[in-house]
Specification:
Elements: E1 8-12, H1 15-18, H2 26-31, H3 46-60, E2 64-68, H4 71-74, H5 83-98, E3 102-106, H6 114-118, H7 127-138, E4 147-149, H8 154-169, H9 193-213, E5 217-219, E6 221-224, E7 227-229, H10 234-250, E8 258-262, E9 266-269, E10 272-273, H11 293-305, E11 310-315, H12 322-341, E12 346-352, E13 370-372, E14 379-381, H13 383-394
Parallel strand pairs: 1-2, 1-12, 2-3, 3-4, 4-5, 6-8, 7-9, 8-11, 11-12
Antiparallel strand pairs: 9-10, 13-14
């Protein structure tokens, strides 16, 4: 498999966050209903500008691009699949390959068709069957894709579904973006393990379809919060790690790889997760500046999974200061390669994000290697893109 030949250096995106006008998705509907939530709208129009975006990554020296296919576009109504949309995503794959970028394709990145959510979503009676029918269809265009992610951050998806249920019971509350985590916001609820169990079933079913229909390495990605225990809180740490992460890492047994997604670290005390205290170094989403968290996440994932190969599918920082982005990424990579030197099988590093984009309900946090003028959609590569490309050419930070 290609997955074993070349270390992947690249960047990641999600379709709803960059494409624009994803009108058949549940998130599009939610944006029009939820107080305090900004709309994705045209997003950054990458649906039409994907070749330009990919070319910027390739010209900088990167060799991989992680992007998603959007279920809500491919199956806008139950059982009706769009040949035009399948052809669109196939063009994206061919474009990436033509530019020398290894495509890493995500089948589900938080969003669902609106009709699926109306049926009950992931807790509906037909949820897994609906998802596997979609996977069966979409894998028809993915036969030569070397890396396929079945689902993005199922632990965070379960948490977001928990938030949405809470919001439905308190409709006057403003939206709480899952990307914001600081001491001024309500504590993010733990993901419901019952939802997690359904997502595990969906992942395992999708994995078998991917293996039957493609030659890809298949896995899913897990958000790792790099928890650390205060003295006396070790038992609480283990309890929270299972609910937040290890349930999903255990489900990766039998996968070809597991995607690690890490941004910061968080302390766990005897009473639970401690909020990030205010600090001048905190990021635009309120999290602590912790580039060392990536190696913590990779080591934890390696230990829990018993040595499944690791692909870093997201790591980055919400900041308006690109010099901080470079400093953060440089230190994160230094820690990552120390872990690799210790024997952890790391297959690649995909930065979040390729573009400044829609961050699930708001636009303020900027994670991108490329800035975008949202009026003209003109792309403005940041120094961090050239810097990461230079690292990729050297093969090491």
């Amino acid at each position: 498999m290609d997955s074993k030949k070349t270390f992947l250096w690249g960047a990641s995106t999600a379709p709803h966050q960059i494409e624009g006008n994803n009108i058949n998705s549940d998130w599009w509907v939610l944006e029009g209903q939820m107080p305090g939530m900004e709309r994705s709208g045209d997003a950054v129009d990458s649906y039409h500008r994907f070749e330009e975006d990919m070319r910027l990554l390739a010209d900088a020296g990167l060799n991989a691009y992680r992007f998603g296919v959007e279920w809500a576009r491919i199956e806008p109504v139950p059982g009706e699949f769009s040949r035009a949309e399948l052809a669109h995503y196939r063009r994206m794959i061919d474009t990436a390959r033509g530019l020398g970028l290894t495509p890493v394709v995500t089948l589900h990145h938080f969003t669902n068709p609106h009709w699926f959510t109306e049926e009950g979503g992931w807790l509906g009676e037909r949820a897994v069957d609906r998802f596997t029918r979609y996977v069966e269809t979409v894998t028809g265009i993915l036969g030569d894709v070397p890396w396929i992610v079945t689902m993005n951050e199922p632990n965070m998806l379960a948490m977001m579904m928990t938030i949405q249920r809470q919001m439905q019971s308190r409709p006057a509350d403003d939206w709480q973006s899952p990307t914001v985590d600081n001491d001024t916001r309500p504590t993010l609820p733990a993901p419901d393990p019952a939802i997690g169990g359904v997502l595990v079933k969906a992942h395992h079913a999708a994995r078998e379809i991917v293996r039957a229909n493609t030659d890809a390495a298949v896995g899913w990605t897990v958000a790792n919060r790099a928890f650390a225990a205060r003295p006396g809180a070790e038992e609480k740490l283990r309890e929270l790690e299972y609910i937040w992460e290890d349930l999903y890492l255990d489900a990766a047994q039998g996968d070809d790889f597991v995607g690690v997604q890490s941004y910061s670290s968080q302390w766990v005390g005897p009473d639970g997760i401690e909020p990030h205290p205010p600090h001048p170094d905190n990021t635009l989403v309120g999290t602590a500046y912790r580039p060392d968290a990536l190696a913590m996440a990779v080591r934890h994932t390696w230990d829990v999974t018993g040595g499944i190969p690791i692909l870093v599918t997201e790591n980055g920082i919400a900041t308006g200061d690109d010099t901080r982005r470079i400093a953060y990424t440089q230190e994160a990579l230094r820690h990552l390669f120390t872990a690799a030197d210790d024997g952890i099988d790391v297959r690649g590093y995909l930065h979040w994000s390729a573009l400044d984009n829609f961050e699930w309900g708001h636009w303020e946090p900027t994670f991108g290697l490329i800035a975008v003028d949202r009026e003209t959609f003109e792309r403005h590569p940041k120094p961090s893109l050239a810097w990461l490309g230079d690292v990729a050419r050297r093969g090491r930070p």
